[in-house]
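Lecture 7 notes: from sequence to structure.

We start with a single chain of 80 residues. Read the sequence below before looking at the structure.
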Amino acid sequence: LRAEAEQVVHATITSAAEMPAGELDALIAAIKRRFGGRDVAVQTAVDPALLGGAVIDVGDEVIDGSLKGKLARLQTALAN
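Now the structure, written as tokens:
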């Protein structure tokens, strides 16, 4: 509730490798646009198991842009 009152969006960005500053800045700008220009407080993490890409966790939303996630979705699509 406090974050809502302060108009701050908290995001966790987990990538397969350390994300370059330019890419991180672009991602933060995109999150800010998506959430109506609210300020973004970011926490980053590295998980090599993702194989590539990143997973972005913002509030109630999870955006899985990881290679691991894409392969899992492809496997599910092929199984159906």
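Residues 43 and 52 are 18 Å apart (CA to CA). Keep this in mind for problem set 3.
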